[in-house]
Amino acid sequence: MINQETTRKLHEMRLIPMIEALESQEHIENIRQMSFEDRLELLVDVAYNTRQNNKLERLIKDAGFSTTAPAISNIDYQPDRQLDQDVINKLATGAYIKAHHNVLLMGASGNGKTWLATALGIAACRQFYKVRYVRLPELMDDLLVAKNEVNGDFKKILVKYGRPVHSPNIIVCMTKIGLVMHLRKMKIKWHWLSKNT
Q1: pTM for the whole thing?
Q2: Does 48 lie in the same domain as 109?
Q3: From CA 109, how far away is CA 174, in angstroms rounded?
Q4: How much is the pLDDT for 180?
Q5: How far is CA 58 from CA 62, 69, 71, 134, 165, in A?
Q6: Rounded percentage of the chain residues whose pLDDT exceeds 70
Q7: Are 109 and 92 in a shared domain?
């Protein structure tokens, strides 16, 4: 059993998972027969896994998703949805994030664009990228209001939506026309990078 001073020091170092692992080890039969290195390895594994799980939970919570149910593994690839499973699996790896590319999801209302964007966002969180979930109309409204302010809010909003610097955007909109109309309303120049312009 660990003494109170050791426990206090572990608390002070914020190693609570290690304290809990030590306490749980006390209830394991024959634990004293294990070598010091093996016991230490068990403690470190538990503490590390707990921290990683807490970090993941925090990233998902801070992203502001409206739901956390969507998952890449639950995507329905029915032919009428015209989803390319290879493309989605590649997106799920986070390769587009490493390459600093954005993802634009377009389609009719109710086709699952928001669900897919959330699934991609959660997949990015699972790779420990910071994600921010914002709907396009809310983003455009924020930018429009801030652009008309003289107190410097526009720059603050750009900085807010620009963070984290290395994370790309997943933009969800109903149609290309709707996005272009929003961007024209904002007087923002946009270069369309698709072959189907």
Answers
A1: 0.69
A2: no
A3: 6
A4: 47
A5: 6, 16, 17, 17, 19
A6: 77
A7: yes
